[in-house]
Design brief:
Elements lengths: L1 E4 L5 H7 L5 H6 L6 H13 L3 E6 L2 E12 L6 E10 L7 H14 L4 E3 L8 H10 L16
């Protein structure tokens, strides 16, 4: 397995991985997925060196996108995961994918990784999985639609 940072040449590859993302969960929260905004955000994250692509024998099998941000409360540097997809044929490698990304993030000075999951996307199952691989619950996030 190899890991690399995405380049602008990978834009379509990252967008193709979006086909495996549970957009229906986002839509259930009242947000409409806008593919133009997704593409623009992807371009920005690539420029910020926030998207990692993992490959097996040259075949892209996972994409993790996020942003490196300072902690509001400490000197910690955080990687806030925004998008994470493992190709359905390679889900058994999910823990290794996360481990590879963590190793790369340490190289660029990241102290903590923040992973997220939508509550309606197998929330309890994924919560147990994240705990099993060493993650702890940091906060619970709530949302409310304030603009009609």
């Amino acid at each position: 397995m190899q890991i690399r940072l995405a380049t602008q040449d990978d834009l379509q590859l990252v967008l193709d991985f979006a086909e495996h993302y549970p957009f229906e969960v986002i839509e259930a929260y009242g947000s409409e997925v806008d593919l133009y905004i997704l593409a623009q955000t992807t371009k920005k994250l690539i420029a910020l060196k926030g998207i990692y692509i993992l490959e097996i024998k040259g075949f892209p099998m996972a994409v993790m996108a996020g942003a490196i941000v300072p902690s509001f409360f400490s000197v910690d540097k955080l990687y806030n995961m925004l998008f994470f997809v493992v190709h359905p044929n390679y889900r058994r490698y999910t823990a290794r994918v996360i481990d590879y990304v963590e190793q790369e993030l340490v190289k660029v000075g990241v102290d903590k990784v923040l992973l997220a999951n939508f509550a309606q996307n197998n929330g309890e199952k994924i919560d147990r999985y994240y705990r099993m691989i060493g993650y702890k619950v940091l906060e619970t996030t709530y949302y409310k639609q304030v603009k009609e």
